[in-house]
Protein: Homoserine O-acetyltransferase
Amino acid sequence: MLGARLVSPKVAHHSLRLPADLPLDSGQTLPRPAVAFETVGELNADKSNAILICHALTGDQYVASQHPLTGKPGWWQRMVGPGKPIDPERHFIICSNVIGGCMGSEGPASPHPEDGKPWALRFPVITIADMVRAQAGLLDMLGVEKLLAVVGGSMGGMQAMQWAASYPHRLRSVLVIASAARHSAQNIAFHEVGRQAIMADPKWKNGAYGAGEGPAKGLAVARMAAHITYLSEAGLTAKFGRHLQQGDVKSFGFDADFQIESYLRHQGMSFVDRFDANAYLYITRALDYFDLAEGYSGQLAHAFKATSARFCVISFDSDWLYPTAESRRIVQALVAAGRHASFVELNSPFGHDAFLLETPGLTEVVDGFLKAVEQEP
Amino acid sequence: MLGARLVSPKVAHHSLRLPADLPLDSGQTLPRPAVAFETVGELNADKSNAILICHALTGDQYVASQHPLTGKPGWWQRMVGPGKPIDPERHFIICSNVIGGCMGSEGPASPHPEDGKPWALRFPVITIADMVRAQAGLLDMLGVEKLLAVVGGSMGGMQAMQWAASYPHRLRSVLVIASAARHSAQNIAFHEVGRQAIMADPKWKNGAYGAGEGPAKGLAVARMAAHITYLSEAGLTAKFGRHLQQGDVKSFGFDADFQIESYLRHQGMSFVDRFDANAYLYITRALDYFDLAEGYSGQLAHAFKATSARFCVISFDSDWLYPTAESRRIVQALVAAGRHASFVELNSPFGHDAFLLETPGLTEVVDGFLKAVEQEP
Structure:
């Protein structure tokens, strides 16, 4: 059975408070939200080397530095670092925690400006476009007018596309990896299972749980369900198959007999140590609401009309969360909009998570694309 | 949020108690278990017209008659009835609730013979082969020595294959629909999410909940997660897409905005009215333990060596729970074992659930196969 652990110990994050209130798609306003971020490298004299990295659902700003809660290395050190495609010696790299998140940016666990108690469900429901609006506010404060590139995998890719639609003249290139321009019914269904698992946990208390007292079991179940969608069936079979924990002995009970069970339980339990349950509700909602074409009468190409950025779209053949067909749809719209768009489908057994892992060809493609953009006038 | 409802009101089921204790794969013994069943049609004079239908994970014996809890028609009236492929005017049709179930056969909600209280987790963990052993005991009591056919979809198909291995001389034909000869890592993973959702619900009480007081919310979440696997992505998109409940108005809250959310919640909530949470644990465990080749040194073909039954294996192209590749593996083993095996992959947008729905070709294939078997000497 899943154990209950602490939900989110307090740590200090590097953050700025936006100078103005943030208007939201819902019609509400977020009063001067905090935006937590990390930067690596330095902005050059003509301010032409800034790259914004957008993180995925459960990611955060610690893209290239040790995570303060888990102690693990940055989540994209394969891609970001000296000699890597996104290189602090060449680039000014910015990664910010999305609003609605729980790593320092304004979110449901942040203190409400009026009473200092957590926002909890008083926090307004936000969208991918709201996240991007907050990032644009951060860039203003950092003195970055135009990005060399906006780069993201999964939900990060959605933000990258939203950037092209919301701020078409503030970017020279867009890199979209393992993503989709809308959430499908199946995507929404999996998220709804996770939300219901959280909300079914009596410790959720309609969102008003105390720090460290949240719905750990519900959140762990939500993570387990989601985690299955990040891996491919073939990858699971290769890694775990039907291997038992104890040689070839079945317990004939409900302990974790199979290695895959033990692995999933571990994924669920370790997640609750670093993530806030309400933040999970808000961010999954933002993802489910995402349909970039919606604001353009259902014409996805129209979302890409105003920008002149170059695009690179990358998918993985074993990704069934945001399958290649979704990337193809994006590329079709891009080309129809007159954009330069490169499309690469990479071979990987690792499913959706391939964008975070060692995937042959991935760093080369990102490297080649960014260097080509840099060499353009 | 999911509401709590009654878990399993008491109803009377037609059942027999086996004349002897039932030995189990675990090494334990089930003292004279009750087996609930329904029969339709009559056994003919030479006892050659009996067909056993095996039900799926959440199915039951009400294959052709109104369900006593839901009031819905029998779950396979498309296939079973006058003029249908399995026809009470020609066949003696038997369908029994699996042991471990909750519709009258001995299961965790049944009274323990010693103290009359529910078995709960004292119930031994059972396997697919144990279910089949109980069915064989029932057939003995009904005077059926040899089956014209054993037929099943999903977990029912696993029982059908197990029949061929356990009682090779008691059947003339085997019909396996939308099934697999083993549970994959991904299959186990989804079940483990469901089990953890149930066990995370404080009302589960380590299985010792009272009648009508079970972990309804946890069970509903388990059902929601499982239900996604029964449908195809394309089917979900066609049926629900991103359609909202209220025209084009988003609530910017956590109510069921999308039709798919509302549908899933309904699936979860209506399930807890007819199913016992502990039974769900036991039956998913039996499925996860299933690997027919395991008892034959990993050689699936050897499981089919002893029988001379004819086989028909049917898969659906959009089924990702037990995909066509698993059926292909079964057929390969059957032919390698020297069996006559027909293999049909049907086109359907409905995913795994296609075996329960109106699927072009399905009744014709079942009808043709059974009639051919009947006409053989």
The domain at 15-184+292-375 of chain A is CATH 3.40.50.1820 (Rossmann fold).
